[in-house]
Design goal:
By secondary structure, the chain is α/β, with parallel strands linked by helices. It folds into 2 domains: 98 residues, no CATH class; 126 residues, Nucleotidyltransferase, domain 5. It is 52% helix and 15% strand. It has a 5-stranded mixed beta sheet with strand order 3-2-1-4-5, sandwiched between helices. The longest helix has 22 residues. The two termini are 19 Å apart.
Amino acid sequence: MSSTYKGFRFPREIIAHCVWLYHRFTLSFRDIELLMAERGVEVTYETIRTWCARFGPEYARRLRRKVPRPGDKWHLDEVFIKIGGMQKYLWRAVDQHGNVLDILIQGKRDGKAATRFFKKLLKRHARPPRVLITDKLASYRVAHRTMMSTTEHRQNKYLNNRCENSHQPTRQRERAMKGFRTVSSAQRFLAVFSRISPHFRPPRHRMAATDHRTELAIRFQVWDQVTEQTVAP
């Protein structure tokens, strides 16, 4: 057995399946416990919670390695979320293909917060995009001048549907979880969720049914490699 799963009693197929269920669907740990019981697998919800905390970040990291170089057009947007009864802001960046580049939870959405998010993006992706698309929030202009002054900046709320649509699965998950308790736990969960969930959400509206099935099969093959259920070619 790979060292990744060393010391765990259950086989990797069950562990990976539970992590997949939790990050792809709006299921609680108890829901997954019930689903696994129906299949004859006796595992507690606390064990499933441990698997998601232990293996989720590792799976997300491996998936990130397999994502091609991001496109040259980045869409940025921010939405408010409730954490422990307090209003925070979730910043998100995606490329023109809908791939999530990064997320960051912050308490404000001023110029300093926007600049901090830009720094995080550039640290991860090394080079700025050709085009940056945001809404008309003035904070983006401040961060653009400071961090990406050579990048073309388009501010138009009608051009930013790509990033706004990327928020929807997070909203669904937030409602299912009845909000988040702390900023750190929300950041950890959403960093993993924003990598695993989109992997299984190809843009179906832009492809034929046969192409969609083929794309899903390819993505499941990648998942099997990431979770070490098959060996990468």
